[in-house]
Structures are given as C-alpha cells and as structure tokens.
UniProtKB/TrEMBL annotation, chain A:
<feature type="compositionally biased region" description="Polar residues">
    <location>
        <begin position="106"/>
        <end position="121"/>
    </location>
</feature>
<dbReference type="GO" id="GO:0000329">
    <property type="term" value="C:fungal-type vacuole membrane"/>
</dbReference>
<feature type="compositionally biased region" description="Polar residues">
    <location>
        <begin position="148"/>
        <end position="170"/>
    </location>
</feature>
<comment type="function">
    <text>In complex with CCZ1, is required for multiple vacuole delivery pathways including the cytoplasm to vacuole transport (Cvt), autophagy, pexophagy and endocytosis. The MON1-CCZ1 complex acts at the fusion of vesicles with the vacuole, through its regulation of the SNARE complex during the coordinated priming and docking stages of fusion, and particularly at the stage of tethering/docking.</text>
</comment>
<feature type="region of interest" description="Disordered">
    <location>
        <begin position="1"/>
        <end position="170"/>
    </location>
</feature>
<keyword id="KW-0926">Vacuole</keyword>
<feature type="domain" description="FUZ/MON1/HPS1 second Longin">
    <location>
        <begin position="415"/>
        <end position="533"/>
    </location>
</feature>
<feature type="compositionally biased region" description="Basic and acidic residues">
    <location>
        <begin position="45"/>
        <end position="55"/>
    </location>
</feature>
<feature type="domain" description="FUZ/MON1/HPS1 first Longin">
    <location>
        <begin position="253"/>
        <end position="375"/>
    </location>
</feature>
UniProtKB/TrEMBL annotation, chain B:
<keyword id="KW-0449">Lipoprotein</keyword>
<keyword id="KW-0653">Protein transport</keyword>
<keyword id="KW-0813">Transport</keyword>
<dbReference type="InterPro" id="IPR005225">
    <property type="entry name" value="Small_GTP-bd"/>
</dbReference>
<dbReference type="GO" id="GO:0016050">
    <property type="term" value="P:vesicle organization"/>
</dbReference>
<feature type="region of interest" description="Disordered">
    <location>
        <begin position="187"/>
        <end position="219"/>
    </location>
</feature>
<protein>
    <submittedName>
        <fullName>GTP-binding protein</fullName>
    </submittedName>
</protein>
<dbReference type="InterPro" id="IPR027417">
    <property type="entry name" value="P-loop_NTPase"/>
</dbReference>
<keyword id="KW-0472">Membrane</keyword>
Length: 675, 219
C-alpha cells in the first residue's frame, strides 16, 4: 500500500504542478485505453467496453475545449504518436481534473503500496498523492465533494480521453515497475513496519473499530439516514417548493427514466411537478448528443456523477454522490431497464413507441413503480449481489441440497420450466432443463419482486405472476407460481401466512417458485408445490432449510476464529455465486453498511476498470484496511479495522479462502439439478 | 387451468361447498384490501399494487350446518393484465366487481367488467358490485363521487348484488361475501339460477337464506 514517503511525495509534486499537457498525451492515453479495452479480461462483456469508449468521446465533447476531445475515429486518423513509455507501461488512466486537485492536497486518500502500484493501473488521482500513510481513506470517492468529485471509474475511464488528461502529466504517475508476485510474496514484505508514521499510528490503538475515526465534515453520507425518506409533493400553491427542492437535492442518489420524446417515466424521488423541469433539461442534453450521433454517456457536476444509458426509446439517468464507478452505475441502470422489460416485454415496448413516439409509459408500467424503487434502493443501500452480478446461496450440506433437488425433480410436472426454492433471497435449490440456464440478472429481478418489494408477499396467498425474464427471452412472458413459507412458522401452508406487515422480515421468508411457459398451468404447479412441500416436510428438508434461515449467515469470527477481518465477499467466478458473512455486528446499521459497500465498490472498480490489471490491491485508510484479490477462480474482498497489519489481513484472507474452498459444495450450488 | 366447478359434499346433516370467486375492477380501488379484510381481517394502508394475481382461500359458515369455501382470485387491476382476466373468471361461480366511490371513472370500468362477465363468463355466475372506500366519505362526505342510489339502480338493472364497503373499517365486507354465498347453488342438483332472458346475467333476488337447501345432494 505505501511506497516510501519520499517517492510518493515526489509523485504528488510532479502531478500537482506538472505543466498542462498537450493533445498528444491525450491521444496516447486514449489509444492506450483502447488497447486496454481489448485486453481487459474482466467479467464484463465486450459490449460494455465499447460503451466505455463511447463514454470517453462524450466526456470529451462536453468539456470546454471541444475539438481536442474528438471522437475515437478522429484519433485513429491522426498520425500515430509514439506513446510515452510510462503511459503504456503502467498508467493507462489519467488523473483528476485540475479543478478538483486542490481539494485533494489536504484530503485523506487511498494509499497504494509500492508493490501494488504497478498493478494498480488506474489511479484515482487522489491516490498516491497523500503523504501520510495512516490517514488515507479508501472510501474517498464516497465523500463526494473532495476526492470523489467523480466516481472512481469516471476518473479512470471517462477522463481517459478527455481534456482533463491534457492538464496533467501522465508521466507523473510512473510507478516503479515490479514483477507481479503472488499474494504471499506481495504482502509479506513487512512494509508496514518500515514507516515510522505507521508505527506511531499503530501503537496508538490496537483495536480501533472500523469507520469510527473518520471525520465527517465533508462526508457525503451525512444525509444517508434521510436518503429513503419520501420527498413530499409540491403543494398546489407551490408554497413549499423551495423546501421540497432542497430535500430533493439532498438525496445522494437519483434515478430518472424518461422517453426520448421527453416524457417522464420514473423518478425515484420527487413528484411529477418537481421533476418535470429537470426531465426537460436532461432530455435536451441527451438529445443534443444523440442528434450528433455521439451519445452522451456521463458527466460530472461538482461532487455528483451523472451516467446515462440509452435503450431504444428510453433514457435512463443515474445521478450519484456515492462514488460508484460509471460501469457500476450503468449496470444499475441496465437492471432498471430489465425491470421495465420484465413488465412489458421488448416487442410491447417497441410497439408502444413505434405507434406513438409520444407514449406516456407510466400508464403501462402502472403498479411497478415499487419494483423500480425497491431495485433502486437496493443499489443505494449497496448490494453485494448487484455489485458482483452474482447470487448468494443458502449454506446447507451437499447431501441435504441433493435431497431437495431430488424432491423437486421427482415432483416435477410436465409444464415446469424452472423450479426454485429460495430462502431470504438466497438460493436453496434450482432445477432446470438441460438446455436452459437461469441468468443471474433474471433471478435478481425475481428476488427483488419477491423479497424487496412488498407487493407479492403482502398478499399472503399464492401468486400467479406473468413475468418476462429478459435474460431468458425478452420477447415473451413466463408464468411464475409463488408461495411463501415463513421460516418461523410451524406450519407450511402459505395461506395461513401472516403478511409482511405483521413483522416478518424478508430474511425469514422461504419461497417456492415454479415457472412455466403456460399461463394455464397454475393448478398444475400448485399441485406440484403441494407435493414438494409435503415431501420436503416428510424428508426433513424443510426443517433443515428453516433452521439454516433462522441461523442466518455465519459471522466472520465463526468462519475464522480470532480473525481481524470484519467482513468479506467471496465470489466464485465459475458458479456466478458469492458468499458473505453476516453484516452484524459491525455493519448492521444502514450507514455502516453503505460505507462497507462503498468500500467494496471502490475495490471492485479498481480491479475491474477496463485497463486494470490489478490482481491484488491493499488499501489503507484512516478508518479501514482492505484487500482485494482476484484470480481466474474467484474474487475476494475483505475489510478489517484501520490498524490491522497487512500480515493480519492476508492471514485472515488466506484462512477465509481456505475455508470457502473446504466448504465450497455447501456454500455454492455447483452444477445444479437438470432435467 | 383445470375446470373447477362448485364441489359440494354432504356429511350427515352438514353441507360443504367450494366456489371459485374472482375480484375485478380498476387498479387501486381496493380489491386486495377487501380480500385481506375478508381472509385475514387485516388492513394495510400502504398496500402496494398487486402483481399478476393472488390466490387465496377463505371458509365461512352460513349456518351451523353449512360451510362455504371460497377460492379467491384477487387480480391486478392494471390494463396490461387484462388479457389474463378470462382465465381467472372462466370457471368462476361468482365475481366481485369493485369500484371506488370517490372515483367516478372506476364505476365505468366496473360496468365494463360486468358486461364482459355477463358476456364471457359462466352463465350462472353471481356478480356482486362493491363500492369501496366508504370510510373516506364517512369522514368527508364531499369526497363521494358516486351516489349510492345511482350505483344501486345500476346494480338492480344489471342484476347484481350491491354493497358499499370499507376494507379499512370492515364495514359490509363480510356481508358482501356472505350474501354471495347465500346466492350460490349449495347443492349440485340442477341449475338454481336459470338464465334470465337475453341479458345473460343472474336474477337479482332478495336474500333468501336456505332457498337452495332443498333437494338431496347428488353425491
């Protein structure tokens, strides 16, 4: 995490006072960015990279000196300039814009160790500039105004080809290149002990709790407690407009959906009267770039990042002060789009707008605002599942899962396409036809509907829901039978269920989902459900599921006794599933949870930036100490208190990874049951 | 979806019958709230829209010998679900068409549903019209958009049972379902409600509890 202070100081000096670079630098950076796009082997698919490239263009166009930031094509036509060695070698990305930099000098930032720095091929401009090792804040980006003026990715990606580059010397980022070692050799160097400042800090308190020491003066999360409060409507006389507007602007996260004709479709906060003006402005801005065949992907205003996603006739805008990267925000917008498709199907959506470009989509989407909002709030609260695009499974023994799978397979009826048992948003069992797999994004839509939005659960009965699963087939509906079983109930009959209003948390709900392509198959699937539940009761599986649900996730200390780790995420890439310990006790409050998730988002952004080749990243901050480690098999993120030694962190990480390896077949559904 | 007609049985002196009931009406008139009140005797002011349809059951006793089980399809009112409605009312024995007495347009929608039911559904279907949110006009009489007399006149003309209900205060909710149950053919022997000429609806007859208690059960 830390290189020696002299080295770092000189870097920051270079960077801060470097003369403004000229176009060739930007070009080189851009080309470099493109190359990186091609070689990047992250889990995002190619089209997304293309998107990033687009984002570069638009960033360029909206900055004042317009002609410099021309499109990629323009660059490609220029005579090739020999890239600076430093650019190609290690720093495809670029620093912050000059107007943000002054703030950085006095702010805590992420520290990057010398061993990491060459792999850490992005740099949040703030990183590496700050002189004191012990006081760096990893979650700087979450602080909006200061270092986090833009999201990490906006620094890494969007500014890559923009004018912002021109103002800074990329050379100044040159770290010392070193060979990439494995985790142990990287982290066992005992660099911690080399810094006197670190020693001093460490000696002061051995056991400072996470997030306790941070000062909140410029913390954008200050208002997080009010984030989900409703913004009242502007009254008819408009007397309270100013006050309402203040409340609205204080929200850390906004999601807006509008049609290309400028009709509002959805806004997370604020009623129609309040947002209409903004919808108009946004529509104008986006359409301007659309007309120029140079779509706008995102821009930054003050401490707020705007990211735009255009899907046919729909414009999606995410406005975030939480410091997520562009690609993370775009993934969230895509999820909202999927939710709309899930309600309407693509042909219906297309047809509506083909027939009448002026269509008011609020009408056809009526009643699904709650689904969009619960999805949006999941993102604002911070969702590991959304971040990692992976699912979480209920941890039970392999043989127990096998029994449940077989019970489902045995009770399977002709009309069944997918059969799932889900407990508290965690997958227990899936059966599926051999030739169809279930797309994680589809499942997250279903989980959102069932466990986050109250509408289905509140009914208390059995449900028959037409739903389009875009990952499966975005042109048609499937029909989903759902019944809930409360893990705290003795009886299994869903019709005796108390609705969610009676106080059972979504964590306690066990749902049986049976999906068919036939809309007439309700009674058939209902019969199958009755058979499955009866069988699960008689073979003891229901008791096992209920016990596992009631027990909740294990704490980090249960998994590795005595560890200094407070929380971790482990994603198995092959299974597209992740595992995490309980959020309590350290992260049970929404604010602590958001901070944790912001940290994970930053770590994720660092290792998933399109030109990033970071495999291991250790971040030391004033309030936390964190590590990310990615291999072709897994992604591992963990966090510990601020004074945890690097050795302690890696030791904990290794222990957890060994544990997951050992428990793999319990923690994850491997293979799954097919028919 | 399997055809499920009324299933009746008689053990000793007690009778048990099962009927399929469907709730229809514009969105946000309170269909789910009426069901929640009827099935669980609960009310939730911040109820979210129903997605798709919910299937619930509730059993009521008409008298000490007679038990009626309702299988209730609580449908979502949004336009996009309209094409699914036939599968819910296809074999229904009874329907509750709900409107909101504070929303004039919701009665128009209710009339469309009644028309569709009378044209498409089971010819013996018993339809009840329910004007919900009675509690709102009890507090603020000027909120009422549909006069009781007007709705009642329409119901009489169309041959419907009629109640003004409040899911919030429970007023008339149980009465609504009970009077439907009383009109249902509790015994399987022969059609009870011969089609009244041309209109395709059911006769609106005064509540006559026990009229159907006549002949012996066919099973």
């Amino acid at each position: 995490m830390r290189h020696s202070s002299d080295q770092r100081k000189s870097h920051s000096h270079d960077r801060l006072y470097a003369p403004i670079d000229t176009a060739p630098t930007a070009t080189a950076a851009k080309e470099d960015g493109i190359t990186a796009t091609m070689t990047y082997d992250g889990e995002n698919e190619a089209p997304k990279h293309r998107t990033h490239a687009d984002s570069d263009e638009s960033m360029a166009t909206i900055t004042p000196q317009e002609d410099d930031g021309t499109t990629l094509e323009g660059h490609e036509q220029r005579p090739a300039l020999p890239p600076r060695p430093s650019l190609l070698g290690d720093r495809p990305t670029t620093p912050l814009s000059p107007r943000k930099r002054p703030a950085l000098q006095s702010k805590p930032t992420t520290a990057v160790s010398s061993v990491d720095i060459q792999t850490l091929s992005f740099p949040d401009g703030s990183r590496g500039t700050f002189p004191t090792p012990g006081s760096r804040s990893v979650s700087e980006a979450g602080h909006g105004i200061s270092g986090g003026t833009s999201t990490p990715s906006s620094r890494k990606v969007s500014q890559n080809g923009s004018e912002f580059d021109d103002s800074t010397s990329l050379m100044s980022y040159t770290p010392t290149l070193r060979a990439n070692g494995d985790l142990a050799s990287l982290l066992d160097e005992g660099l911690n002990s080399q810094s006197p400042a670190w020693k001093l800090l460490s000696s002061q308190a051995d056991n400072v709790n996470l997030f306790e020491t941070i000062d909140y003066e410029d913390n954008a999360l200050l208002n997080f407690d009010q984030e989900f409060d409703e913004v009242e409507a502007v009254d008819s006389k408009g007397g309270n407009e100013e006050q309402v507007l203040l409340l609205w602007k204080a929200k850390l996260k906004h999601y807006l959906i509008l049609s290309s004709a400028g009709k509002p479709i959805y806004s997370r906060h604020g009623d129609q009267n309040l947002i209409n003006g903004y919808i108009g402005i946004i529509q104008t801005i986006i359409s301007f770039f659309q007309d120029a065949k140079d779509p706008l992907m995102g821009f930054t205003a003050g401490g707020t990042r705007f990211v735009v996603l255009i899907e046919g006739p729909l414009y999606f805008v995410a406005i975030s002060k939480l410091g997520e990267s562009d690609s993370q925000l775009r993934a969230q917008l895509e999820a909202l789009y999927m939710q709309i498709l899930s309600t309407l199907t693509l042909p219906t959506l297309t047809q509506l707008f083909t027939n009448r470009p002026n269509t008011d989509l609020r009408r056809p989407l009526e009643g699904t605002e709650t689904l969009l909002s619960s999805l949006a709030d999941t993102f604002t609260k911070g969702s590991p599942s959304a971040l990692l695009s992976a699912l979480e499974c209920l941890k039970i023994r392999k043989s127990q899962r096998h029994t449940i799978n077989n019970t489902l397979l045995k009770a399977r009826t002709e009309k069944l396409l997918y059969g799932l048992v889900v407990a508290g948003g965690r997958l227990v069992s899936v059966i599926r036809p051999k030739r169809h797999s279930l797309h994680p994004s589809d499942l997250s839509l279903i989980f959102n509907m069932l466990f986050e939005a109250g509408s289905v659960k509140a009914g208390g009965g059995e449900n028959w829901i037409p739903v389009c699963l875009p990952g499966f087939n975005k042109t048609g509906y499937l029909y989903m039978y759902v019944s809930f079983i409360n893990a705290h109930d003795g009886e299994e009959s869903s019709s005796d269920q108390r609705p969610s209003t009676a106080g059972s948390s979504p964590e306690d709900e066990i749902a049986i989902l049976l999906i068919s392509t036939d809309k007439e198959s309700f009674y058939e699937l209902k019969q199958m459900r009755d058979d499955v539940v009866a069988q699960l009761e008689s073979n003891g599986s229901m008791g096992i599921i209920k016990a596992a649900v009631r027990q909740g996730r294990p704490s980090t200390a249960d998994i590795v006794p005595g560890t200094q780790l407070r929380h971790f995420l482990y994603k198995s890439r092959a299974n597209v599933q992740f595992m995490m310990p309980s959020l309590s006790p350290d992260f049970s409050s929404p604010l602590a949870r958001r901070k944790l998730m912001s940290l994970y988002h930053n770590l994720h952004a660092s290792t998933h930036a399109k030109h990033s080749h970071v495999k291991v990243l250790h971040c030391v901050a004033r309030d936390s100490n964190s590590l990310v480690w990615t291999t072709p098999l897994f992604e591992f993120y963990c966090i510990a208190g601020p004074n945890t030694s690097r050795a302690g962190l890696t030791h904990g990480a290794n222990k957890v990874i060994q544990w997951v390896k050992r428990e793999e077949e319990r923690v994850f559904i491997i293979g799954g049951a097919v028919f | 979806m399997a055809a499920r007609g009324p299933a009746g049985s008689r053990v000793g002196n007690s009778r048990f019958a099962q009927f399929k009931l469907v709730l229809l009406g514009e969105s946000a008139v309170g269909k789910s709230s009426i069901v929640l009140r009827f099935v669980k005797d609960q009310f939730d002011s911040y109820r979210e829209s129903t997605i798709g349809a919910a299937f619930l059951t509730q059993t009521i006793s008409l008298d000490e010998n007679t038990t009626v089980k309702f299988e209730i399809w609580d449908t979502a009112g949004q336009e996009r679900y309209k094409s699914l409605a036939p599968m819910y009312y296809r074999n229904a024995n009874c329907a509750v068409v709900v409107y909101d007495i504070t929303q004039a347009s919701s009665l128009d929608k209710a009339k469309q549903w009644v028309k569709e039911l009378q044209r498409q559904a089971n010819e013996n279907i018993i339809i009840a019209l329910a004007g919900n949110k009675l509690d709102l006009v009890t507090e603020q009489p000027d909120k009422r958009a549909i006069q009781t007399a007007d709705a009642e006149a329409y119901a009489r003309e169309a041959g419907l049972l009629f109640f003004e209900t409040s899911a919030k205060t429970a007023e008339n909710v149980r009465e609504l379902f009970t009077s439907i149950a009383k009109k249902l053919p509790l015994d399987q022997a022969g059609p009870r409600n011969p089609r009244s000429g041309g209109r395709g609806g059911v006769e609106l007859r005064p509540d006559t509890p026990g009229t159907q208690a006549g002949g012996p059960c066919s099973c």
